[in-house]
Amino acid sequence: MEQRVQAGLFTRSFGPPPRAGAPTAVLVHGLGLSGRYFVPLARRLAADGAAVLVPDLPGNARSRPAARRMPDVVRTADALARWHRRLVPGPSLLVANSVGCQVVAALAARHPCLVRGLVLLGPALTPGASAGRQGGRLLADAFREPPSLVGVAVADYLSTGPFRFAASLRHALRDAAGAFEGHLARIDAPTLVVRGSGDTIASGAWVRRVAGLAADGCATEVPGAAHAAHYSAPDAVAGLIQRFAAGEEKA
Fold first, then answer.
1. Which residues contact 200 (CB under 8 A, 6 or more apart)?
2. Which parts of 137-181 are beta strand (E)?
3. Residue-level pLDDT at 133
4. Is 62 within 8 Å of 156 (Cβ atoms)?
5. I need a labelling partner for 72 at 20 to 30 A (CA). Which of 55, 172, 175, 203 fits?
6. Which letter, b or e, does each residue of 59-74 get, where b requires 16 or more Cβ atoms within 10 Å of its Cβ?
7. How does DSSP assign 110-145, residue by residue?
8. What is the DSSP letter of 179?
9. How confident is the model at residue 248 (pLDDT cuts 50, 70, 90)?
10. Is the domain 2-245 a CATH 3.40.50.1820 member?
């Protein structure tokens, strides 16, 4: 694994460098976090020959200096698109968790030439749910995740900072209430929506709706996993992604 600032964002790189015609995956974290909790999945995808890039989004964790203020979802998506164009010579597979799904949906709708496919892991936030209700769901999920993930998340939240976290949450709630479903409806790329069966944040009904909004979407579950299935069950999620990328995963 290589870790350094690339194209303005702190980036973790796994496997070979991205090159034209070769598979590249970009893994996008959720609200207030960093890319650290994607490391187990990134290593498994890179072990099969893919180039894997895991940025910290602008204003978050080790990319905190990249933004003076927390950008909204669309501005974050545009910043990620600029980063993508500088590092990846062609479209990639975008894999996102939680609020990161809102970011990659905006990117795919606004910059479709950068996207070969999307994998949305536990898409959040659910439209119409208040910040308090979303927070309650997050707390309930924490008891279902590995303790090591809770430690990573707490450290990342402290690194991002409470004021930036709160600003990001406001932006995400506004996006969920309006633009997110519109962005999903504009996505033509194949889209796989994945839910851990124990996820308290992204319900089964919501995941199926997200998959149905995309033109070429399908949904599936990872048994026994919670919201961060890519962390607690990286082998299972890597297998789903690889079958999906090969055109085999349809549910």
1. 137, 140, 141, 144, 226, 227
2. none
3. 77
4. no
5. 203
6. bbbbbbebbeebbbbb
7. H-GGGEEEEEEES----TT--HHHHHHHHHHHHTTS
8. H
9. confident
10. yes
Report which DSSP code applies to 180: H
The pLDDT tens digits for 89-108 are: 999 999 999 999 999 999 99
Q: Which two tokens stand for residue 28?
A: 């996008």
What is the predicted pLDDT for the residue at 250? 56
Q: Give percent of the chain above pLDDT 70.
A: 98
Tokens describing residue 22: 């070769």
Place of tokens 């998506």: 77
Task: Judge residue 9's burial from the number of C-beta atoms within 10 Å of its C-beta, 0-12 exposed, 13-18 middle, 19 or more buried.
Answer: buried
Helix (H) or strand (E) holding 82: helix 73-87
List the chain domain ranges.
2-245
What does the alpha-carbon distance between residue 180 and residue 13 come to, in Å, rounded to a whole number?
Answer: 28
